[in-house]
Fold this sequence. Notes:
44% of the residues are buried. The longest helix is centred in the N-terminal third of the chain and has 29 residues, at 2-30. The protein has a single domain (33-278, 338-356), classed as Rossmann fold. By secondary structure, the protein is α/β, with parallel strands linked by helices. The chain contains 13 helices and 5 strands. Belongs to the 'GDSL' lipolytic enzyme family.
Amino acid sequence: MGCKCIYIATTWLLLLTNVLVAIIVVSEANKKIPALIVFGDSTVDSGNNNQIKTVLRSNFSPYGRDFEGGHPTGRFSNGRVPSDFIAEAFGIKSTIPAYLDPAYSIKDFATGVCFASAGTGYDNATAAVLNVMPMWKELENYKEYQAKLRAYVGVEKANEIIGESLYLMSLGTNDFLENYYIFPTRRSHFTVSQYQDFLLGIAENFIKELYALGGRKISITGLVPMGCLPLERAINIFGHHACKEEYNNVAMSFNKKLDSLISKLNRKLPLLKVVSANAYYILNDIITRPSAYGYEIVENACCSTGTIEMSYLCSDKNPLTCPDSNKYVFWDAFHPTEKTNRIISNYLIPKLLAAFR
């Protein structure tokens, strides 16, 4: 009888243990990222440049014509940008507001906020080209946001949001295309490889500062095939307007070094998880095989003639702006259409969901 009781008790203990394990597994599976916090350049800027003194803005038509309501928002796209799609995939919200936009408050920012500034880069000199926010200023705004968040939800809840949020970093292309290859200053001090290392050193310090401020989940995007942007193809006259493969090779080399940096940070900083959100290969595949994705035009952009137009050079008064952006890989000479942003995001999202949810 005693043995039978022990057997029954043991059986129930095992069942209870399995139930508890199942509850924990389900709980972990359903744990949500409370907010998406965004740093970077025009690939993810949702309107911060509207509020600073710079010529690099997109708060006018035809930008935003396919956004909800058909209004320009400051996003350098006809619609949404990747950070919007990523936030939606995590069940947070469908768009991420710009921190400097006076239409929003800490109530909105508590579940997602964008500090990005179009035209910026890792290098402070890059931000100075068009008088936009450097990365150190984005970080200062984030510190201010933390103080507001603690005042809004309390210290304990704010620290939970800060620690569990997903931090998205998307920048680097401007450092080469608006700085290194345009002005001689950096080229006189750095080879391409040395400049890559210089930028990655800044990226490392930035991530370490985020870590010190409580960030633990970080997604960082490398460089895209920048030699195939319409702007670069347009000015590649002697190359018959083909992609500048030299630039693409620089991008791939940078991304490889970035992966090594990510591995090092993940090893050295306890509880930190950094994931590479490398969009190079998906965008390159779209550019190489546009018809496979339903595109008709890849060399030029939808806006105006699609050669060098960006920001104020992209105007709805220009009769050459295309009527159907879904046929185009690029919206303006530098930025993808919303359709392309969605495809890129759908490629990256499963990896991010697997890593952070």
